[in-house]
């Protein structure tokens, strides 16, 4: 395996073998809008609580890595991620890309695929936001519906081009789980192998057949909103996950909680970053899933995904 690029430098994958990986989280972001001012994880106000949670998970579960998917236009602060990583002792992978069209910065409008690809490649090879810190993943590349808009399609093609040029993998945002098939078709149509694609938020889509089809094609299927009861109860997520495992696709599953606003932090009474490890996985175990499969989903899969390694069958 090649090294994983974290905000504190390259991390040999064997160093992350001691514990689980959170495959889709946010540590700092700003998705606030006039009708929703609370979609924020603030660098100053919230960072101490984030550090406490990550430190606790490192001490209790040997948390090995966090894949942080706040990209351009989402309030990304890579320097803050480095401070959080250093303070908590947990390696963090930063991201580059663009979210769905409602959050595209002005740079996307009118820019061609080649220009957008160049922007991503420069960040990946030279560092982002003047920090010299290199993103280690492309995402979360967003679409807001079953089919991407014209601008979202350009961004997806740019993500594929940058992934092919740099060796990084691509994580998508599929709103409410919709649009994963269109995302995968567009990315693979641009030449990106499916095992370098993670389709986001599939636990919000109650369609086991769709999950099976995406996994069978070779893409990673993310159950990454675990604990977000306002969207779906975890009992539904467990049912959908077990169906995917029973179909033989454990090697295509990634798990996380997608903490994306202050209200989800433990300090604010939310499930926090540890809900997957402290709560949901106990339900998975109680359903009969053994430790090797849990290790596959929470450690081996995300490491192979990040390093662009073909997944085991």
TrEMBL record:
<comment type="similarity">
    <text>Belongs to the metallo-dependent hydrolases superfamily. Phosphotriesterase family.</text>
</comment>
<dbReference type="InterPro" id="IPR001559">
    <property type="entry name" value="Phosphotriesterase"/>
</dbReference>
<dbReference type="InterPro" id="IPR032466">
    <property type="entry name" value="Metal_Hydrolase"/>
</dbReference>
<protein>
    <submittedName>
        <fullName>Phosphotriesterase</fullName>
    </submittedName>
</protein>
<dbReference type="Pfam" id="PF02126">
    <property type="entry name" value="PTE"/>
</dbReference>
<keyword id="KW-0378">Hydrolase</keyword>
<keyword id="KW-0479">Metal-binding</keyword>
